[in-house]
Amino acid sequence: MNTLTSSRSGSAWLAWSALLCASVCLSGCSTFSDWRSSLARSAPPLTPSDSFLLPTEGTDVVGIVQITSAHHEDTLSDIARRYDLGYEEIVAANPGVDPWLPGEGTQVVLPTQFVLPDAPRQGLVLNLAAMRLFYYPGPGVEEAPRVITYPVGIGREGWQTPLGTASITEKIVQPAWTVPASVRREHAKMGDPLPPVVPAGPDNPLGAFAMRLSLPSYLIHGTNQPWGVGLRVSHGCVRLYPEDIARLFPAVPEGTQVTIVNQPYVAGWRNGQLYLEAHPPLAEEARRWGKSLKPMEQALAKKTAAPDAVNWDKARKVAHEARGIPIPVSPDSPDFAAVLAAAPQVPSNPPWALAEDREGQKIQ
């Protein structure tokens, strides 16, 4: 196992992986369409570390959509963290489901399929609109090229995480937080004064690990408030679940390139089908764009020069619904119901969640 998965329960994962692969293949061979069969063969189930073999050239989609059942005490946040999803993405994938009380037996869609961002596949790539980080380990780090993806929390409106290209300049274990003056002023106005420096420990919002960017004052770090992953809650920094930053931190060397994009509409190919993944635009873009779907059209145009290669009515529907789930939009492609019908049923308490030892508290 690599550093991203070594702390998980290996035997539990291997058993569960075999069960999932078998169930998907058997279903595809006996009752699914050719599309569902090819999907099952080409897209292995989500791994505990959200690690996928990097697609070959011309293929842009990884993972598969999955479905689970809620227990009576579950919230969507609980289920999201077990499957390494952020709050907004699991809520968007399940319109009409009460996020705080889904209810015993409620079927919950897990948006664990991803169109890779339109960016160089190297280093770290952050798509703000998707609130998701993609890591492409360099040669020699993995036996085969892979992409690892984690949900993140990003800068809230007025404190937007900046776009552009940067690099990792420093890695810090148990960081202290030097509170920017602007943040201290903001908290003072709210009656919540902060000290100039917050020492390492359970009250530190940076968590146990931080990676400093060449963009001044910006970090990729853990958090002591995991509920904020998948939301716009920070002052511009990028936060991960404690267990995710603990896996990512030792794998990312200093000097790694970081590319930050904002792509609410991401298009890509797999198995001869053109997919569209749509997220709600960030508030700043939503006001500027209004009801225009020009950015969606541009995302699809980058992937095909043939207008008749797209079912535009279907693409507009996917864009309006913005459920964050890749949907085929080629003519005569499967609809959303078929995508859900192909999704394997998985437990709300997978083995890796039961065996989770909170690496963030153990790695020194």
Short summary:
This protein is α+β, with helices and mostly antiparallel strands.
Characterization of the model:
With 364 residues, the chain is α+β, with helices and mostly antiparallel strands. 27% of the residues lie in helices and 23% in strands. The chain has twelve helices and 21 strands. The chain has helices at 10-30, 34-42, 76-82, 87-92, 181-189, 242-248, 283-289, 294-301, 312-321, 336-341, 351-354, 359-362; strands at residues 51-53, 61-63, 66-69, 107-110, 113-115, 123-127, 132-136, 146-151, 154-155, 164-173, 177-178, 197-198, 209-213, 219-221, 232-234, 238-239, 257-261, 265-270, 273-278, 327-328, 345-346. The protein has a nine-stranded mixed beta sheet with strand order 1-8-7-6-17-10-13-14-16, covered by helices on one side. α1 runs antiparallel to α2. Residues 1-48 and 356-364 have low confidence and may be disordered.
Keywords:
364 residues, alpha+beta, nine-stranded mixed sheet, three-stranded mixed sheet
Mean pLDDT: 82
- Put simply, the count of helices is 12
Low-confidence stretches: 1-48, 356-364
Shape: globular
The biggest sheet, with number of strands, parallel, antiparallel or mixed sense and barrel status, is:
9 strands, mixed
Total E-strand runs? 21
Helix content: 25-40%
Q: Which range does the strand content fall in?
A: 15-25%
Radius of gyration based on Cα positions? 20 Å
C-alpha end-to-end distance: 19 Å
Look at the helices and sheets and give the structural class. Answer: alpha+beta
What's the quaternary structure here?
single chain
Strand line-up in the sheet with most strands: 1-8-7-6-17-10-13-14-16
